[in-house]
């Protein structure tokens, strides 16, 4: 017998280790149990049980989070939404869909596509992350440039609060100016306010055929002029950047040969609408002009969808290729126009203070978002390296503050950035966040110790 | 030696093909079109042969309306020296294609005509073989490895049970299989240069090709819908489901 009956639960060591952590590896996984509710009602029952028995709950999605938001390291109960993955309704006129929070985002994308529609929010871990998790982290990814973040697609949420109240937030309405929109408080709340059990998401028409450019920049100062010109001349869906070092790791992990010479310091994968011959021609003209201006040194363009996929691999596979080096990740953002200046300052900072560390840069430059990955040297232990990362961080974040940027652009705060929130948010803001948390979850049941 | 490579414009391999509602063909409006993947492999091999110094010129040819110039330009950007478009509208059957290429062979006198083993749209797998017969020269089809020496080609062929290696006298017809090579990406500067490479347009009439009309497409149907999967709760349920379907 388990106290969670009839709700399914697991307490064996293997399951606890598995469900007790997300993509991060910095904290031990030590939950007391993992539970698998199948309905909003069962989630309400769990909250009631938690209040009665003084349990703490960690809402848990696909556990692809990069900030430890879904980590349970001090005897919490992991509430996995894994068994709540039903698609409730697909509406082709709206168009939109309603699904349980545990539906994998990859599955959502597939179901939309099958119905002749499109869910555009996409990133390397979308196949394993869940709708609820992606809302709780306001996931961004590779097409924010064109389609915005997860927030822009949420039309309704069903939420269970820390008092066991069920909230129906916005009910799928397009227009609803009736007071504070609590839905938007839930988006990006990283499981500290309540558990999202269902969501209504907007869908759109699929874009026309896409082609992919892979381009090599002459130097750092060329990135913005190229972005500006390509954005003006083409309908861009993505403008994703990476450095030369990324190529070595992807080549090592995939065994593929980089299609260009690989001698430029920075590269970008650029995806654009290509419904016919004319846009290819325009892309080529732009390339020619930018090459003549000395900004672009090399490039290729996909001639088939197979090639488009292969070119994307060079950007998408970076995260996984460097994961054996347990990188210390920073997910930073500044105003788009300040990216090159910021990148330059950061690069100098790291090489000055940690000449022994290798840094891999990639990111969503069109959104002003850079992923800085400091790689662990082979002979360093994870513990020592994490400590060194924490030492480096204040310097990095001080720079972020100077540039009026964000210390976490899209990966959230979780456990990883909790101490650093003040670099981006004022005291008054953080205090208000605490009060809002207390209003939703007066007994502090959900995700204790996370975010603030 | 010249190598003549044929390129067919087809619906991209990754596109989910949709049958027109009246069953008269497949939708191509607004659909991504690419070089037939096997033809792209054939061209890659021809370019490698040339880069090894074993051929002087690579010519790409395609039959169809002006839209095929797009695939020919891609071929030029990959490295072909010049291109020939044989303009023709409507459906071009394998025998018509083979007759057309024979005319080009008579005109260009290549040492190798390299085709894809088949086009992924009609999957006919006939053109190379017909051309060899019309030309009365040897053929080495389904090539997964090609070596040239002393006026001969040694070709490893993918056959059902493994590889068969044969030797053919040149000139000959070769057709490529999937594992022959991995085609290169075209560099943007090469695409610029390709714009200045010669592209000649002829017509079936100019070449005096007699159109074959032996095959008539009667109707097209999409494959049957796959039945939905079912998630079972336990091994017992799985076993009884399989039993009830007679699978165990
Ligand atoms: C290789 C890789 C690449 C990535 N790239 C990107 C990227 O480009 N852009 C980006 O934004 N992210 C990226 N991520 C991060 C991650 O995939 C996203 O944050 C994702 O949205 C997390 O979803 P999840 O279901 O895995 O959530 P989890 O990791 O399970 O949880 C994340 C947070 O949400 C909370 N939560 C989960 N489910 C619920 C729920 N139902 N109700 C309330 N709270 C809940 C958890 O408590 C936790 O705080 C990447 C991750 C990996 C591993």
Q: How is the biggest beta sheet of chain B arranged?
A: 9 strands, mixed
Strand order of the largest sheet of chain A: 13-10-12-11-15-16-14
The overall pLDDT average of chain A reads 94
Number of strands of chain B: 11
The share of residues in helices of chain A is: 25-40%
Helix proportion range of chain B = 25-40%
Number of helices of chain A: 14
Mean pLDDT of chain B: 93
In terms of quaternary structure, what is this?
A: heterodimer
State the end-to-end CA separation of chain A: 36 Å
Widest sheet: strand ordering of chain B = 9-8-7-10-6-1-4-5-11
- Assign the CATH superfamily of chain B: HUPs
Question: Any idea what the shape of chain B is?
Answer: globular
Radius of gyration of chain A: 22 Å
What is the terminal-to-terminal distance of chain B? Answer: 61 Å
Tell me what the CATH architecture of the largest domain in chain A is: 2-Layer Sandwich
The CATH topology of chain B:
Rossmann fold
Count, helices of chain B? 7
Q: What is the CATH class designation of the largest domain in chain A? A: Alpha Beta
Number of domains of chain B: 1
H/E order of the elements of chain A?
Answer: EHEHEEEEHHHEEHEEHEHEHEHHEHEEHH
Keywords (chain A): FAD, Flavoprotein, Oxidoreductase
Pfam families (chain A): FAD-oxidase_C, FAD_binding_4
GO molecular function, one term (chain A): oxidoreductase activity
Family (chain A): Belongs to the FAD-binding oxidoreductase/transferase type 4 family.
């Amino acid at each position: 017998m388990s106290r969670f009956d009839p709700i399914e639960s697991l307490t064996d060591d293997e399951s606890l280790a598995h469900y007790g952590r997300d993509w991060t590896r910095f904290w031990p996984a030590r939950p007391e149990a993992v539970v698998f509710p199948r309905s909003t009602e069962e989630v309400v029952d769990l909250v009631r049980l938690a209040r009665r028995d003084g349990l703490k709950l960690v809402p848990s999605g696909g556990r692809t989070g990069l900030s430890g938001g879904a980590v349970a390291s001090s005897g919490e109960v992991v509430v996995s939404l894994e068994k709540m993955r039903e698609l409730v309704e697909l509406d082709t006129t709206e168009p939109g869909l309603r699904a349980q929070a545990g539906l994998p985002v990859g599955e959502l994308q597939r179901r939309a596509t099958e119905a002749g529609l499109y869910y555009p929010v996409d990133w390397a871990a979308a196949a394993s992350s869940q709708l609820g998790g992606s809302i709780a982290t306001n996931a961004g990814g590779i097409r924010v440039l064109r389609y915005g973040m997860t927030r822009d697609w949420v039309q309704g949420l069903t939420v269970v609060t820390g008092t066991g109240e069920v909230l129906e937030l916005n009910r799928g309405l397009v227009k609803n100016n009736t007071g504070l929109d609590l839905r938007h408080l839930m988006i990006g709340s990283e499981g500290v306010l309540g558990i999202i059990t269902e969501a209504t998401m907007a869908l759109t028409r699929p874009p026309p055929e896409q082609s992919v450019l892979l381009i090599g920049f002459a130097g750092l100062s060329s990135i913005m002029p190229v972005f500006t010109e390509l954005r003006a001349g083409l309908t861009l869906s993505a403008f994703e950047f990476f450095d030369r070092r990324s190529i070595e790791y992807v080549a090592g992990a995939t065994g593929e040969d980089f299609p260009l010479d690989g001698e430029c310091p920075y590269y970008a994968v650029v995806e654009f609408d290509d419904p016919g011959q004319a846009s290819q021609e325009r892309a080529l003209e732009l390339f020619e002009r930018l090459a003549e201006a000395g900004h672009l040194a090399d490039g290729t363009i996909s001639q088939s969808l197979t090639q488009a996929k292969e070119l994307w691999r060079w950007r998408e596979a970076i995260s996984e290729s460097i994961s054996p080096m347990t990188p210390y990740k920073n997910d930073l953002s500044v105003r788009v126009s300040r990216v090159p200046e910021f990148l330059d300052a950061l690069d100098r900072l790291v090489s000055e203070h940690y000449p022994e560390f290798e840094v891999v840069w990639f990111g969503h430059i069109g959104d002003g978002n850079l992923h800085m990955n400091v790689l662990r040297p082979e002979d360093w232990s994870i513990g020592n390296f994490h400590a060194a990362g924490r030492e480096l961080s204040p310097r990095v974040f001080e720079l972020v503050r100077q540039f009026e940027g964000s210390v976490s652009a899209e990966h959230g705060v979780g456990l990883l950035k909790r101490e650093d929130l003040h670099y981006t948010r004022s005291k008054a803001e953080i205090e208000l966040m605490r009060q809002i948390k207390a209003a939703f979850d007066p007994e502090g049941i959900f995700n204790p110790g996370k975010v603030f | 030696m010249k190598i003549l490579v044929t390129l067919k414009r087809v619906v991209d391999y990754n596109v989910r093909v949709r049958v027109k509602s009246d069953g008269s063909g497949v939708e191509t409006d607004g659909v991504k079109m690419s070089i037939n993947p096997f033809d792209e492999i054939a061209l890659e091999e021809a370019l490698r042969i040339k880069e090894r110094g074993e051929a002087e010129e690579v010519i790409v040819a395609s039959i169809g309306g002006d839209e095929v110039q797009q695939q020919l330009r891609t071929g030029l950007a990959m490295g072909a020296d010049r291109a020939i478009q044989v303009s023709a509208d409507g459906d071009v059957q394998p025998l018509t294609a083979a007759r057309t290429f024979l005319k080009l062979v008579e005109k260009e006198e290549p040492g190798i005509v390299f085709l894809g083993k088949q086009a992924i749209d009609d999957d006919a797998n006939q053109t190379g073989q017909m051309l060899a017969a019309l030309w009365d020269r040897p053929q080495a089809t389904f090539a997964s490895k090609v070596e040239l020496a002393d006026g001969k080609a040694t070709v490893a062929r993918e056959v059902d049970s493994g590889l068969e290696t044969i030797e053919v006298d040149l000139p000959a017809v070769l057709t490529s299989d999937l594992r022959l090579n991995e085609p290169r990406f075209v560099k943007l500067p090469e695409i610029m240069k390709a714009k200045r490479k010669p592209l000649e347009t002829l017509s079936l009439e100019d070449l005096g090709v007699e159109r074959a009309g032996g095959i008539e497409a009667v109707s097209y149907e999409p494959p049957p819908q796959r039945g939905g999967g079912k998630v079972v709760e336990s091994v017992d349920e799985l076993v009884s489901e399989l039993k009830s379907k007679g699978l165990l």
